[in-house]
Please model this.
Amino acid sequence: MDVKIETSWKEALQEEFEKDYFIKLAEFVRNEYKTKLVFPPAPQIFNAFNHCPFDKVKVVIIGQDPYHNVNQAHGLCFSVNDGVDFPPSLLNIFKEIERDLSITMPKSGNLTRWADQGVLLLNATLTVEAHKAASHQGKGWESFTDAVIRKIAEEKEHVVFMLWGNYAQQKGAFINASRHLVLKTVHPSPLSAYRGFIGCGHFSAANKYLQQFGIEEIKW
Model:
C-alpha cells in the first residue's frame, strides 16, 4: 500500500503496510472519514511519525487513544493544538516537568516541539470517532503500533521508553531493558497521578540517560 508517511518510516514499516490486517484497517479508516467526524484530521493521522523520523527517535511516550473532542487531537499523544485548554493528564505532565526540572509551565499544550527533537508521541490507536472514546480500538491500529514499538526496540539502541499506566506497560512489555531505558509509573490522569506520576522524575532521568550515551538531551 502507498501510505503517506515520512520516508524513513515508510521504509521501516513497508512490510506492515502490505499485511491483511493493515489493508482492512485502512479501508475501515477511509470509510469512517468519509461518513463520520473523525479525529485527528486525516492529514495528521501519522503526525507523530512525520515529525520524528525513525533514525531520530530518542524517546517514546505511549498513549492510548486520540482526544475525541473538536480541535484537540493532532496526531501526537497527550498533545493538543495551540489555544486549547490543557486536558487533565497533560496538565499533570507539565506539573511533573516543573517539579522535576524547574521548567515553567508552557502557555501551549502543543508538543510538536518535543516531537521535532526526537520524542515519538505514539498513541496505540491513531484515530477515533468524534465524542466516542475508544471507538476505533480493536480495528488493527494496536497491531500496527505494536510493530512500530518492536521495530524501534529491536533495531535501535539507547532509546528511552516512558510507559505510564498499565496499558502502556503491557504494550511495551517485550522491550529489552538492557538495550534501552524503560521508565514505568502510573498514568498521569488525575485518578492516579498523585500515586506515583508526580515525583517520578522521568524527564530528568531520560536526559541523564541520553547524555550518558552522547545523545543530545530533550528540551522539555
In short: The longest helix spans residues 20-35. Strands lie at 38-39, 59-63, 119-123, 128-129, 160-164, 181-185.
